[in-house]
Amino acid sequence: MKQYALTGCRTSEFRNARGKGIEVYEVVNNQWQHLYTMSVPFDNPSWLTFDDKRQQLYVIYGDGEKVSQFKFNKQNGQLSYINSVTTGPRHPNKDLQPERRNNPVCSCLTPDAQHLLIANHEGGNIAILNFDVDNNVVSTDKFIFIPGKQDPSYQDKSLSRPHQTLFDNSGKFMLVPNQGRKAGNGIDMVQVYKIVGDDYQLVHIAITTEGCWSRHICLHPSNKFIYCVNELDCTVTVFSFNDETGELKQLQEIKTLDINSKYDVSEIQLHQNGKFLYVSNRIHNSISLFYVQTDGTLKLQKWFESGGKTPRFTTLSPDNKYFYIANEDSDNIVQLKVNPDNGYLEPTGTIIANKSPTFICFI
């Protein structure tokens, strides 16, 4: 069966970007062969979600307010545009940047693939989109609104900024890391929602360090531990996770590098063996490797150069043998081989030219 890699990017002047659209590659013997560039109707196709059930790709646009739907042909890698709908209304808080609108930053399908969830970072909500009888995604009026601090002295409507939606391995809970940015008087936290039918019931909130900007999370294969990367603090917070109740308990907070300067972390990945955890450090242009201990806590082992500038996004190949780094400001994607014994990242010499990359999706 053929394998493909699709990349999202930034395209707007506001982001000083150079991307042109979705880049489509066929992956043959771990080498990427560029097929074509797919133009898209809006700026910044920055996050991609593939729907294996419907053979469709969903594209959200950073700093925008739209999601587009494409049909994907696995025989030849061709994308065919279907439609676009809004991700929801703009938040009324006057301190928000109007040019960023809703700023959808992450999307995922529910475990049963019946709904598409979108984290509207600037909108302060999770949008829950449905599909019609023809499998077209449709606009929604169903949202999970995420408030900020309840402070009587704050005169505007508060909000916290969801940066991701992720389901636990049982499919019973949705986890949402939120950034407590000053505009909106937000709260740094990880929320846990229990799925009851088509409803999402908030069952637990784990508060993270104020001002840390909790960004992304990943789950241990055992479903017993959750790792949250904090953008401004340059830390990882480790939680134990009770997959019966949804409760989180903080076990550890650890820096991603043993240096004192700011280095702005971004992405977090856990190897399928549950032993190696990787975090990208954008300003430092590096990848930190942690070893996961038997109690779920982390030990910083080593860091590796990213091979470019601003490693915004990283991912492991589907077989977890290779590690890919999307260096947004040096216009390249770097392939590294994962040493299965110690988790070290070894250069393969493969560097893929790609303008302003922000996401990699394997199909």
UniProtKB/TrEMBL annotation:
Gene Ontology process terms (BP): glucose metabolic process
Q: Which InterPro entries match?
A: Cycloisomerase_2, Lactonase_7-beta_prop, WD40/YVTN_repeat-like_dom_sf
The protein's GO terms of the molecular function aspect are: 6-phosphogluconolactonase activity
Q: Does the keyword Secreted apply?
A: no
Query: Would the keyword Manganese turn up in this protein's UniProt record?
Result: no
Keywords from the named record: Carbohydrate metabolism, Glucose metabolism
Q: Which residues cross the membrane?
A: none
* SUPFAM superfamilies according to UniProt: Putative isomerase YbhE
Q: So what family is this one in?
A: Belongs to the cycloisomerase 2 family.
Recorded protein name is Lactonase, 7-bladed beta-propeller
Organism, scientific name: Pasteurella bettyae CCUG 2042
Taxonomy of origin reads:
Bacteria, Pseudomonadati, Pseudomonadota, Gammaproteobacteria, Pasteurellales
